[in-house]
Write a structure and sequence with these properties.
This protein is mostly helical. It contains 14 helices and 2 strands, in the order ααααααββαααααααα.
């Protein structure tokens, strides 16, 4: 193991250890609740980052899949008595099914047209949820959703739920790392950078995008189910465009196409969301200004600050070679000079 990989392993272990002790340092239930929201937004942002960061496509319908997962698990547990633990994978499966259908239709176009199509599909799912009263209770929403439970362990308190969502975030982050390091992940990045060139190399661009889109919607559905069983009340507002905007802000501010970026962006978003609560409706204006400033002055997101600092340190520590006064050595080149 080289020094860089060893240092990265120690940094990851230290980060996980710090995240594990945060609830004990928070001091009250409200801060623990904010920690849960941080992890939930991080999980959903990691799923959206697959589409925006790795596939290079902008989607405005991601919140619809979060809502599909939330409603699936909530309906199965309240109306059919299914244990929430079984509803969790089913929520991801149903959301992925919707993602397969919508992605199959929308991913044949690129750019703004794809974004508009996903916005339209999201609006359709929101309208169906809002008016199918017999199944979803319409604008009244679904209440009395049972908490998540694994055997005798019931996740009723914020601290317990935090560790559950933290485990999901770490698992998703590891899967994203493994994905990017795999052949499929390299195909994702090739499609993002230059789709025609990727196609000329034998990569099926449409199937690659569809695979990433379905994976992202499955994770979003699981995140939505966790949210439903934690808040225990859901309404069609969970599919609103404002939630899509929030997730896009989180991904871009943190750093799209990275693993740490969405987690860091979620922390900044939740922190500012609570600290700026006194500003009322002006909060979104401040967030819009923050997003604009990030895009203009920090296109790589907050993660790029660390990369800039590391590159600056490397350049400072690099010592120029002392002149020796000797001629350069090496084999002669084709022109007769030394290499």
């Amino acid at each position: 193991m080289n020094t860089n990989s060893h240092g990265q392993t120690l940094a990851i272990a230290g980060g996980v250890a710090a995240l594990s002790v945060l609830p004990f340092l928070s001091g009250n239930a409200y801060l623990e609740h904010l920690l849960v929201l941080w992890m939930l937004y991080a999980l959903l942002a990691l799923s959206l980052n697959i589409v925006i960061g790795y596939l290079g496509e902008l989607t405005f319908g991601h919140a619809a899949f979060v809502g599909v997962g939330a409603y699936t698990s909530a309906i199965l547990s309240t109306q059919f008595g299914l244990p929430p633990l079984l509803g969790l994978p089913l929520a991801g499966l149903v959301a992925a099914s919707f993602g397969l259908v919508i992605g199959y239709a929308a991913l044949r176009v690129v750019g703004p047209q794809f974004a508009i199509l996903t916005l339209g599909f999201g609006a359709i799912l929101f309208t169906i949820t809002n008016h199918w009263v017999d199944l979803t209770r319409g604008p009244m929403g679904i209440t009395d959703i049972p908490p998540m439970a694994i055997g005798p362990l019931t996740f009723t308190a914020a601290r317990e739920t935090y560790y559950l969502v933290l485990a999901l975030v770490l698992a998703t982050a590891y899967l994203c790392h493994a994905l990017v390091s795999s052949r499929t992940g390299r195909a994702f990045l090739a499609v993002r950078e230059n789709a025609p060139l990727a196609a000329s190399l034998g990569i099926n661009v449409f199937h690659t995008k569809l695979l990433g889109f379905v994976a992202a919607t499955a994770i979003a559905g699981i995140g939505g189910a966790i949210y439903a069983h934690y808040i225990r009340v859901i309404t069609p507002d969970i599919m609103g465009v404002h939630n899509v905007a929030a997730l896009i802000i989180v991904v871009i501010i943190g750093g799209r196409g990275t693993i740490l970026g969405p987690i860091l962006g979620a922390l900044v978003y939740i922190g500012l969301l609570e600290s700026l609560r006194v500003a009322g409706p002006l909060r979104m204006v401040i967030f819009a200004a923050l997003l604009t400033g990030t895009v203009v002055f920090l296109p790589g997101g907050l993660v790029s600050l660390w990369q800039r600092w590391r590159n600056a340190n490397k350049s400072e520590n690099a010592q120029p070679a002392a002149p020796t006064g000797l001629p350069p050595t090496g084999l002669p080149s084709a022109e007769g000079g030394a290499k």
